[in-house]
């Protein structure tokens, strides 16, 4: 039954109050915080009651609900249970029955519905937190036809999207925005948006079918976890102005075989390429002075690595379990070689430690069963626990005297040292 005009006016006033309250509780715009995992209960902060401007069903029977914030934005916050549930190809309204222009898609507005495609409002600038999350049948959305400049966290997580083109108008992409879109095959980012990640769930993390990625050359940072567990990604051209690859950005990209790092790069985050089991060759650019921990951990088919001469630090486990790595030349300026840096590198045969090194840390060459020759500079004062634990004889070339060697602190578990054939007053060239 339709309301009288007076009742409608009263109702509209009540809606305005309710809308203000809605904004205070976080509905419609989506605040920060960690999104729930795909199997967890939706965030309660975005499930508040949804006020409406109108209750007239559209031709498809869907009753859309809206809210309005203090700046004049009109938010499509969802649909009424009294009408039909959105499904199939859906065109979202650009204007309400009262003439308000829709400028935002609210948090969880269509989450979990059986829509297959969606046309966004022409002037929608924001897609809210989890707006289309768990729409597993959603295969297409045209972001280029709208004015979207913000895609909030988990907006399209766990959907059936197959191809995504993010236009230059988009200035911000939130954490897990396209997380676990397992049908996604290609991604193009045409602009240079700010991107947030999170080591265990980046923007495109878990997109297991993703093969083709095009990134604007102006992008300077690959976000944390951005392409983690994209198991079909084989090749990738990185932006020419890239300066940083975040933590776990490409971890568990098990099909990745080759990657060229641009000369502009200055930082590789922890676990950046960890568990990239088929990565074979890599050259680290000259501006990278420090290799973070676990960077190439468990890249078991990595055979060739080129490091810049000015690199001063290699973090713990940086090349641990790189089982195919036979030879690697350490940088001349290297002063710190982290724990277990080459642990489990079974094929490693020769190693020259740089003159600036003062210690061989715990487990640095643990289980390097084929290590035949090792050059140790006289500045090394300690050999940590199980640093050279291979159960075999090897040749150690020490640049100091026998007396100096006797003062080196050799901790427990260094069976290879105990069995080694020692050469004193040696040169690094003796190892070649």
CATH topology of the domain at 1-31 and 44-133: Leucine-rich repeat, LRR (right-handed beta-alpha superhelix)
Using the coordinates above, name the CATH class of the domain at 1-31 and 44-133.
Alpha Beta
How many β-strand stretches? 28
Distance between the first and last residues' Cα: 91 Å
Stretches with pLDDT under 50, minimum 5 residues: 1-54
Which architecture name of the domain at 1-31 and 44-133 does CATH use? Alpha-Beta Horseshoe
Shape label: elongated
Strand order of the largest sheet: 1-2-4-6-8-10-12
> Over the alpha carbons, how many angstroms does the gyration radius reach?
29 Å
Share of residues in strands: 15-25%
Largest sheet: 7 strands, mixed
Helix content percent band:
under 10%
On the 0 to 100 scale, the average pLDDT is 87
Tally of helical runs? 3
Structural class, by secondary structure, is: mainly beta
């Amino acid at each position: 039954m339709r309301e009288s005009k007076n009742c409608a006016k009263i109702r509209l006033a009540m809606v305005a109050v309710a809308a203000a309250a809605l904004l205070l509780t976080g509905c419609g715009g989506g605040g920060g915080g960690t999104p729930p995992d795909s199997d967890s209960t939706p965030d309660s902060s975005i499930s508040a009651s949804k006020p409406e401007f109108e209750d007239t069903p559209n031709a498809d029977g869907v009753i859309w609900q809206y809210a309005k914030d203090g700046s004049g934005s009109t938010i499509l916050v969802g649909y009424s249970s009294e009408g039909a549930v959105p499904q199939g190809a859906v065109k979202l309204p650009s204007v309400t029955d009262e003439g308000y222009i829709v400028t935002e898609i609210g948090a969880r507005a269509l989450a979990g519905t059986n829509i297959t495609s969606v046309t966004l409002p022409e002037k929608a600038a924001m897609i809210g937190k989890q707006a289309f999350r768990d729409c597993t049948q959603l295969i297409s959305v045209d972001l280029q036809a709208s004015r979207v400049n913000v895609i909030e966290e988990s907006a399209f997580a766990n959907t059936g999207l197959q191809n995504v083109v993010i236009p230059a108008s988009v200035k911000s992409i939130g954490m897990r925005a396209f997380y676990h879109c397992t049908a996604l095959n290609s991604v193009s980012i045409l602009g240079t948006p700010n991107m947030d990640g999170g080591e265990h769930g980046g923007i495109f993390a878990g997109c297991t079918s993703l093969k083709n990625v095009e990134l604007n050359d102006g992008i300077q940072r690959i976000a944390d976890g951005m392409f983690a567990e994209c198991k079909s990604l084989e090749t990738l051209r990185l932006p020419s102005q890239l300066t940083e690859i975040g933590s776990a950005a490409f971890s568990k990209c098990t099909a990745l075989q080759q990657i060229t790092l641009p000369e502009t790069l200055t930082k590789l985050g922890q676990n950046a390429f960890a568990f990239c089991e088929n990565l074979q060759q890599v050259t680290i650019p000259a501006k990278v002075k420090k290799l973070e921990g676990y960077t190439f951990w468990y890249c078991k088919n990595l055979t060739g690595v080129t490091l810049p001469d000015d690199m001063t630090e290699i973090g713990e486990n940086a090349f641990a379990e790189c089982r195919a790595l036979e030879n690697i030349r350490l940088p001349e300026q290297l002063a710190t070689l982290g724990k277990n840096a080459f642990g489990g590198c079974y094929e490693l045969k020769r190693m020259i430690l740089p003159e600036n090194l003062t210690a061989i840390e715990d487990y640095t060459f643990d289980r390097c069963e084929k290590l035949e020759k090792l050059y140790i500079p006289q500045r090394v004062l300690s050999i940590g626990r199980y640093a050279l634990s291979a159960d075999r004889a090897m040749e150690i070339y020490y640049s100091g005297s026998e007396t100096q060697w006797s003062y080196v602190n050799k901790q427990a578990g260094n069976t290879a040292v105990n069995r080694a054939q020692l050469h004193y007053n040696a040169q690094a060239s003796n190892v070649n």
